[in-house]
Amino acid sequence: MPQTTLTLTPHGPALAPRYREAAVPPRRSTNPYARLFAVPGAKAFTAGNLVARLPMGMFGVSAVIMIAGRYDSYALAGSVTATGLAATAVVAPWTARLVDRYGQARVAVPATVLSVLGTLSMLLCVRAGAPAWTLFVCAVATATAPNTGGMSRARWAHLHRDDPAARHTANAFEQAADELCFMLGPVLAAFLCSALFPEAGTLVAAALFLGGVLVFAAQRSTEPPVAPRTSAGSPLRAPGMARLLGVFLATGAVFGSMEVVTLAHVDGPVAGPVLGLQAAGSCAAGLAYGRVRRSAGLPACLAAMTALMTLPLLAAATGSLLALAGALLLAGMATAPTMVTGMSQVQRLTPPSQLNEGMTLAVTALLGGIALGSATGGWTADHVGAVYGFAIPATAAGIALLLAGTATRTAKARLP
């Protein structure tokens, strides 16, 4: 608003307006992602975490290509991958509990070093043509890998603990980042393994994982404070948590089976890019979902996933690679909204002092499902046919939908 003041003019005194620029408020960005990264230190820890997470999309594909190429068995490759994921599912909650108790930097770095040593041991065993049982031992040794995505989500939850809208946007961004890594990771892994040598994907993934964790851990200003010891039990005891973890288990089976079955069906250098299209669809959907003020319910998201997961099965039956690529792109569009909604529900059920452990339990269930899906998909591809293997993701999504109904009803009944 203008203010008036008395000024002297050639015609005598007169009232002249005076404007104060300070009275005009600065324009605030309407982009929720711009506001998210306006927090000091957010860009730095996100950059390190993205480098550490890219290998998560590389390890599985690299291991399948590396082992199947050397031992001529997708069943063995799927079983070894499943063993590593299952071992991680057992160890990861304990690693997360240590992170909550002693801090991210103090625990994540040594845990990553141990995991990378296990990965390199597997690489050497494959290179030397060692007995198959040695691969399973090495896979178990990788189980100490920390949940980098969970640690990043914990930082956002701490930085925006009083802003639910910002936490929703952060969860959507984190899921989109996951999908970006699983989109670029398989492509990079397939390229390295085919253009250089079969073990190249695993070697590069191990280097990126260790380097990214070191950069992420160095960003101490955004690290959540160490939670004081409490007498609270495991987040598993939270009402509705067990059923929700069942949903994550079934959802993981969707991802694990789809990865192995697609690799077996396409079986060539283009397998990675084709598989990456599913992650591309999910990444785009996740970024769009982050702009929505109100999230959809978990059953609605899973219903969409169940319907869309039937498309790859129909496309594979036609024998058209182009149709399969398009079907995977569409199928991925329900993934990110499902994961964002599920993770938000986990955060609501978990006490703040156990946030890393709670989210890692969700990821653990997801990994357990991926392991189950990988083994089932590999067996089906070898003994029945890869086309029939595409029925597994659709079935697993349907099971997750059935479980989600009871999990959501319990959570709503218990929460204030």
TrEMBL record:
<keyword id="KW-0472">Membrane</keyword>
<dbReference type="Pfam" id="PF07690">
    <property type="entry name" value="MFS_1"/>
</dbReference>
<keyword id="KW-0812">Transmembrane</keyword>
<feature type="transmembrane region" description="Helical">
    <location>
        <begin position="321"/>
        <end position="340"/>
    </location>
</feature>
<feature type="transmembrane region" description="Helical">
    <location>
        <begin position="74"/>
        <end position="95"/>
    </location>
</feature>
<feature type="transmembrane region" description="Helical">
    <location>
        <begin position="296"/>
        <end position="315"/>
    </location>
</feature>
<feature type="transmembrane region" description="Helical">
    <location>
        <begin position="203"/>
        <end position="219"/>
    </location>
</feature>
<feature type="transmembrane region" description="Helical">
    <location>
        <begin position="240"/>
        <end position="258"/>
    </location>
</feature>
<feature type="transmembrane region" description="Helical">
    <location>
        <begin position="107"/>
        <end position="124"/>
    </location>
</feature>
<dbReference type="InterPro" id="IPR011701">
    <property type="entry name" value="MFS"/>
</dbReference>
<feature type="transmembrane region" description="Helical">
    <location>
        <begin position="361"/>
        <end position="381"/>
    </location>
</feature>
<protein>
    <submittedName>
        <fullName>MFS transporter</fullName>
    </submittedName>
</protein>
<feature type="transmembrane region" description="Helical">
    <location>
        <begin position="387"/>
        <end position="407"/>
    </location>
</feature>
<keyword id="KW-1133">Transmembrane helix</keyword>
<feature type="transmembrane region" description="Helical">
    <location>
        <begin position="270"/>
        <end position="289"/>
    </location>
</feature>
<feature type="transmembrane region" description="Helical">
    <location>
        <begin position="50"/>
        <end position="68"/>
    </location>
</feature>
<dbReference type="InterPro" id="IPR036259">
    <property type="entry name" value="MFS_trans_sf"/>
</dbReference>
